[in-house]
UniProtKB/TrEMBL annotation:
This is MATE family efflux transporter. It is a multi-pass membrane protein. GO terms for cellular component: plasma membrane. It is found in: Cell membrane. Its main location: membrane. The chain crosses the membrane at residues 18-38, 50-79, 100-122, 134-156, 168-187, 193-216, 248-271, 277-298, 319-339, 351-372, 384-407, 413-431.
Length: 450
């Protein structure tokens, strides 16, 4: 048999669904970390201090946004389940309420980041010129936070409706606009690192406006209301709570990593910024499969199709490991060529190249981890992911502290830091999520996860 019931026919159908969602999602996800890469490339040629300052500032900014990634993930899971259960209007209402929640949280975070920029930078161990550059970037980029969070929620809603092409178009246009604005403001108007922050903020606000209009039109067509609904906002917040805990554990690990790099010296910190930017690009590329898994798993469970859920799990894991292997070869094998785009300093380049090889070796495992995250998020298994996130951070912390205590500045220190992060931390994540996926407790069927 083939498509009428044979496992091979089912696998082919699942592959087509995965690719139909993952390929556009790949473009959108890759476009987002290009913001960081463009900022790094533009600011890096201002000098080592601005690049090191950007490393701290972008880490704080990405942490603030990353803590709110539940706005996308919880919305995708909720919308896809409602869609699978045949409730299109309810699905769009979840998306609208998610955007209102994102706007409120974004305004609060923007004010907090503006006021607390100096304290946050100091808490990461920066001082003198590096700290000054970091604070400038944060002050100019903070107004874009509401836009960034609305983009997350709107994108989550569209993914739940199995539309990954619209976010692709908006993200691609945003990446181009961001690059042009950065060059114009930093070098054309000689605003330095402030121009980079302002350009990114303006671009994110424009992207949010476009995506909000798209979701609003879809909601109106489905018969959903556009005004905020207290019950829907509360439901989004409750669903996102466990994912917030998960995000906190992930961001805590990233912050600890930056804190360790800062303590090892300017060369290690600048090199870490380069490696982290490339890792982010690769991670978001692998996350395209996780996005497909979220939407497909949520839809399958919403329609009570456990067999299709298992098929999506199996095939996305296979794609994830294979994709990680390919990315690892590209990232590690060509590091010598692209690292020079980020810094003219030979010591920074040497450290970054060596650490990128370490990161490349672990990418097949990263592909496994990201896909399993997507599957469990799509299933609404947030409580387990919250506990697993705390456990993996506890496992990683001693390894990071050991690097801080004994590793030297430069190449050796950065290599050991990435052995700890890409090796120990990712292995702990792989073990916990892999154990969960082997069972069936996460496969709760129906329009809601719990």
């Amino acid at each position: 048999m083939s498509s009428d019931g044979h496992p091979r026919g089912r696998s082919s159908a699942v592959d087509r669904q995965i690719l139909a969602l993952a390929v556009p999602a790949l473009g959108a996800l890759v476009a987002e970390p290009l913001f960081v890469l463009v900022d790094s490339a533009v600011v890096g040629h201002l000098g080592t201090a601005p690049l090191a300052g950007l490393a701290l500032a972008s880490t704080i900014l990405v942490t603030a946004v990353g803590l709110c990634v539940f706005l996308a993930y919880a919305t995708t899971a909720a919308v896809s389940r409602r869609l699978g259960a045949g409730d299109r209007a309810g699905a769009m209402q979840m998306g609208v309420d998610g955007m209102w929640l994102a706007l409120g949280v974004g305004v609060i975070l923007a004010v907090a980041l503006w006021v607390g920029a100096g304290w946050l930078v100091g808490a990461l161990g920066a001082h003198d010129e590096v700290a000054r550059q970091a604070v400038i970037y944060l002050h100019w980029s903070a107004p874009g936070l509401p836009g960034m969070l609305v983009v997350l929620a709107a994108t989550g809603a569209l993914r739940g409706m199995q539309d990954t092409r619209t976010p692709l178009g908006v993200a691609a246009a945003g990446a181009v606009v961001n690059a042009l604005l950065n060059v114009a403001l930093v070098y054309g108007l000689h605003l330095g690192i402030a121009g980079s922050g302002a350009g990114t903020a303006a671009t994110q606000l424009a992207m949010a406006a476009v995506l909000a209009v798209v979701v609003a039109r879809g909601a109106r067509a489905a018969g959903a209301r556009l005004t905020p609904h207290a019950g829907g906002i509360a439901a989004n917040a409750r669903a996102g709570g466990p994912l917030l805990v998960r995000a906190l554990s992930l961001r805590a690990a990233i912050l600890v990593t930056v804190w360790v790099a800062t303590g090892l010296g300017a060369v290690t910190l600048a090199g870490h910024q380069v490696v982290n930017a490339v890792w982010g690009l690769a991670a978001f590329a692998l996350d395209a499969l996780a996005i497909a898994a979220q939407a497909l798993v949520g839809h399958a469970l919403g329609s009570s199709d456990v067999a299709r859920t298992r098929a999506v799990l199996r095939r996305t894991l296979q794609w994830g490991v294979a994709g990680g292997a390919v990315l690892g070869l590209v990232v590690g094998g060509t590091a010598w060529a692209y690292v020079r785009l980020f810094s003219p300093d030979d010591d920074v380049r040497a450290a970054a190249i060596a650490a990128l090889v370490v990161a490349a070796v672990t990418m097949p495992m990263a592909g496994w981890v990201f896909v399993l995250d997507g599957v469990l998020i799509g299933a609404g298994d947030g409580r387990f992911l919250a506990w697993a996130g705390v456990l993996t951070f506890v496992v990683y912390l001693p390894a990071a502290l050991a690097v801080r205590a004994w590793a030297p500045d430069g190449t050796a220190g950065l290599v050991w830091l990435w052995v700890a992060f890409a090796g120990v931390f990712m292995a702990a994540r792989a073990a916990t999520t892999g154990w969960r996926a082997r069972g069936g407790a996460w496969m709760v069927t129906g329009a809601t996860a719990r």
